[in-house]
Amino acid sequence: MSQAFGTEHLSVFYGDFEAVKGISLEFPAQSVTALIGPSGCGKSTFLRSLNRMNDTISQARTTGHIWMNGSDLNDPATDVIKLRQQIGMVWQKPNPFFKSIYNNIAFGPRYRGMKKKKQLDEIVENSLRKAALWDEVKDRLNESALSLSGGQQQRLCIARALSVNPNILLLDEPASALDPVSTGKIEELISELKNELRIVIVTHNMQQAARVSDYTAYFYLGKMIERDKTDKIFTNPENKLTQDYISGRFG
Amino acid sequence: MMIKKAKRADKIATIVICFFAMLIVAILVGLLGFIIVRGLGHINWHFLTSAPQMIRGGGGIGPQLFNSVFLLILTLIITVPLGWGGGIYMAEYAKPGKITNVIRLVVEVLSSFPSIVIGLFGLLVLVNAFGLGFSLLAGAMALAVFNLPLMVRTTEQAFRAVPKEQKEAGYALGLSKWKIITSILLPVALPSLITGTILASGRIFGEAAALMFTAGMSSPPLDFTDWNPLSSRSPINPLRPAETLAVHIWKVNSEGLAPDAKEIAAGASAVLVILILCFNLGARWLGRVAYRKFTAAKRID
Amino acid sequence: MGQMGKSTSLNHNDMKKSKRREKHYWEEWVGRIYTSICVVLLLVVIVSIVFFVSSKGLATFFENGVSLKEFFTGRTWNPDESFGALPFITGSFAVTLLAALIAGPLGLCAALFMTEILPGRGKRILQPAVELLSGIPSVVYGFIGLSVIVPFIRDYIGGQGFGILAGCLVLSIMILPTITSIMADALASLPGGLRESSLALGATRWQTISRVVIPTVLPALLTGVVLGMARAFGEALAVQMVIGNAPHVPGSLTESAATLTSTITLSMGNTAMGSVHNNALWSMALVLLLMTFVFVILVRLLERRNRI
């Protein structure tokens, strides 16, 4: 995992409004980077721009660079579909497809040309195992994904993202709609998955950031105020604004 | 004084509103009752299957019934791909702006055109210019024009009602937009699409004005053993003229010569209304079933 | 980079170069082109309808030399020499306006009943009734008019039974569902707080309805009436069956009359394409077409008022 992945002067505009202001940030390999900050600070918008999801909003415009392995993902010539196949994403609200559990996972690989039943079965099992869901659903793979509980649905979404072997996983407040037990499972999962891929997580919950991340970046009003090792940010931040936020004085 | 007066006005208004509301229900019950009571006595197997008689009594509506069903199928074959495609464009591809506004206006105007005007257009362009003659195909195309705007609108609504998280999930998985539309959004939108299509079918089934000058007002003698679509006596030849049930009701009423014309009209109206009621109830039921199947069903593949 | 080493992984150079050959690339175009064709077809259809009907309809004036004045104000319709369409135009407007006058208040009552008087139960009774009414085909309405309304008028009011009165009664039942459902939607979209604050001020329900609710949604209510009128104006068969089809301006509501649509319905099949008589029928179709535009514009204007 020697590839570099990071942004340089990345800005996102909604019309005239600059929601993300020239952020340069690197995501080290085999690590979890947490993005924290008050609501509306641009952290989610920034996250969405990493796999160019903002392209799907007609108002949004992204400038700057997203570097991966020496090339710029924000280049218009980049094939966004291939790009997104390498960068998985999971949202706050679980959004499984209205399909069976099996087909939720098999859908991506099948689209990319995998037709053999045996291989697909293998991928489904592996992905579900990685997402710590296999034991709970292995006997009901043909049931609708919507019959699962919220926490299970969220892990299914993670499994779905993993099914196409991404090397980066973007998580947008993945546990904020879940109960504490499910949240615990998701956090465990994050710690295990980081051995295989880079994870960027946006979270409101500072304890969560402290528990799961290696690096933390603090966002405020579209700017990145500070980014450092998580321990450092939570014990001895450089910037006064960060300190105020961490200590709960606002936000 | 004032308050008393206001209270009395309130009471009177309430009574008036309730009276008229009930009147509407009474009209409906009266209408349906009239049609069905008047017509039911005349409906029997012979009536439903035999050919109409010009001068003598005892004619049936067999060919007309067949024509209506066949024309409906032909119309759906034309309308569904076009209407769904147009609706998908409006829901997923159209960007807000001038062009989209123009298309919206076009859909609105087209859906407001009187059906007789569409029939006349069919006469001029399909029957004469394209040389289709009075035929099922010309009728189906006219009905498609008549029905397309409704189809586009229901499809657009059905696709817009799909949660946008579904689309995001598809994008993030690296799917193309078209793949997302066909494999993720379409199954979710399908229940409303089916309901909308069946309701539209009811409208197609009862339409007559657009057909008089396109599918024609006559039905050649049909040979129900001949299924060669090119033979002129074959029921499934799309180039033969075909009077539908609705057109037949009109014709019997305005120029029917048979002594039992009134009874035939009553029987045919009852058949038409019962079939359309079935469409409406069927649409609701199928919509519900499909919704259950595609969302919380026990087993899906 | 263990994961990346397998077949699914690609580096960035692949991402750029292979764009053209990839499945998803042409798939995207298939979707875009297919749906665009559907929409373009809609445009082609409407343009050709307007073009063909206009070219035929205008031929009466430009090729056959019938003057606009004669067509719109002439009272005599004689297929061989004079083409005054006034009887049909007045017939169409008369049945449409009268139908709106009957169905408008009735529809409003039904909509108020569903939303203001008995919101839960009223809706459960009336909504299906309205939907079923809207599903009944127009020929069936014509048949009922012919077998119930016409004899009734003949026996109790006078005349032959055929005429404007029978026509507008049939049409008013036909357009009732359109008007009711649009009005009910408009009333239901009103924020609840508006009613409550009026009732809290001590106003009775009728005062609230007549002074707060109706004035607020008036443009939307009128939209329902206009759409109903558009339907009535363009309806052909139901009217044709009950109106009597006499080409003169009627002296009373129970006297036989004719409308644009009824005349087209009856005569289009019996005239030769290209004859003056036939072209005059196309001119009447053109009037129908133009009125459609007028109704659409009216609806748009009302919608604009509604937004403010």
TrEMBL record, chain A:
Coiled coil spans: none
Listed InterPro entries: AAA+_ATPase, ABC_transporter-like_ATP-bd, ABC_transporter-like_CS, P-loop_NTPase, PstB-like
Statement: the UniProt record of this protein carries the keyword Translocase: yes
Record-linked Pfam families: ABC_tran
Residues annotated as domain ABC transporter: 5-246
Keywords: ATP-binding, Cell membrane, Membrane, Nucleotide-binding, Phosphate transport, Translocase, Transport
BP terms from Gene Ontology: phosphate ion transmembrane transport
Protein's name in the database: Phosphate ABC transporter ATP-binding protein
